[in-house]
Amino acid sequence: MKANTLLAAAVAATIAAGAGYWFGQRGHTPQTASAAPEPTKQRKVLYYRNPMGLPDTSPVPKKDPMGMDYVPVYEGEDSAAASASGQVRISTEKVQKLGVRTELASMRTLGQAVRAVGRVEPDERHVHVISPKFEGYVERLHVNVTGQPVARGQPLFEVYSPELVAAQREYAIAMQGTQAMAGAGAEAQAGMKQLAESALARLRNWDLPPEHLAALVKNGEPRRTVTFRSPVGGIVTEKKAVQGMRFMPGEMLYQVTDLSAVWVVAEVNEQDLGSVRSGAAAAVRINAYPDKALQGRVTYVYPTLKAETRTVPVRIELPNPGGLLKPGMFAQVELQAGARTQVLAVPDSAVIDSGTRRIVLVDKGEGRFEPREVKTGARGDNFVQVLEGVKEGERVVVAANFLIDAESNLKAAVSGLGPAASPAPAAPTAVGHKASGTVEAVDAKAGTVTLNHGPVPTLKWPAMTMEFKVANSGLLAHLQPKAKVNVEFVERGAGEWVITSVQH
């Protein structure tokens, strides 16, 4: 009996020791956990902000009049933090939802297309006029219609001139006298020979055909008529000769134009003239052939400006195979202009222009965006030169700029760029401009309002009447015709002004 009692006591002691050890381990667990790193703390929500960037906050979750959830602002994302660091902070998830896209600021040659209207004109160097240098009559026409194509050397018309016949006879008599005085003295022969040469020179000065003169010298027989031939191959663009008509010296009878090459004279606006230079490539489209793009180059920029249209003519030379281009046709011209050297440039969508300053958002990584004031220069197709504010290789935001503006308190960060930045307010405010005025008209379907407002000092605008869009349909209830209101607005896109707040 005593042995059983001792065995039971030993088992009890063993169980008690095991239980004490187990409870001791449980009691020791908090001390071990306190020594290990603490788990990630859940971020604290400071308040909820309007999703459209309106100056409206809520301490609890809510929806705006359009049914959109208010955006939570966490600790560390408020305006004070942004202003202190000079950066805009947005969570990575929100950056992805906003569709933020960035591109590198890089060196590039800015291309700029200058568009102008023009007309097809004949090459002035290939226009030839046939006008006899003596008086006479049109005896016969070989080409009797305007627009007829002619080949080089093709007969155009024949003329009869009493003056020409008399000059030929004088030469023939002088030649006969020279032959008759072959046995006379040298002085007499020289005089007669000089008379014949003078008569022949007179005929040459009248631009008689070489074959006509050769026949006269050979045979010594004057011809009654003289045939005029086309000096070039081309088109008869003007014909004034009529069979039997009398003409005077220098009177134009035919005009023949070689249209194998033509000019396109484009009227370039005065403000675009500085970027157009000789040698620039030009694409020409003719209304008659919309599927054909003709390539040429600027060969001359005229030195005069047309005061009526404030344009300067620019000449482009084009080949004209097949004669498709007709003088007088209208043309659409696109000139490639711009700087020939590479400059630091960013996409034009990266620049937020408030009217008083130009801002670029530089991506610093991990949802951080630094607003920089930049100085811009020349503009090209979809790119703008940056003179100051951004370095080569930095990434700039080219898409969702306005959404970043609405998602964050950009105004607080941008205020640090000024010479005298004011302290950022505790609650976020919309980035925009203020104006007071009278509502002229409201288009609820289009979501627009016409406002006759006073001066806007932040944009240096005078008083004017203009159309605004509204950030949401709920604002239209406060914008009734003839109502006097105070509004705050932002520029969502180029020339697109959006009212974000209305007060009476």
TrEMBL record:
Keywords: Ion transport, Signal, Transport
GO cellular component: membrane; outer membrane-bounded periplasmic space
GO MF annotation list: transition metal ion binding; transmembrane transporter activity
The keyword Signal is assigned to this record: yes
SUPFAM superfamilies assigned to the protein according to its UniProt record, in alphabetical order: HlyD-like secretion proteins (SSF111369)
Protein name in the entry: Efflux RND transporter periplasmic adaptor subunit
Keyword Signal: yes
Any Pfam family the entry gives: BSH_CusB
Domain CusB-like beta-barrel: 262-337
One GO BP: copper ion export
CusB-like barrel-sandwich hybrid domain mapped to chain residues: 127-256
Ranges for domain CzcB-like C-terminal circularly permuted SH3-like: 344-404
Family: Belongs to the membrane fusion protein (MFP) (TC 8.A.1) family.
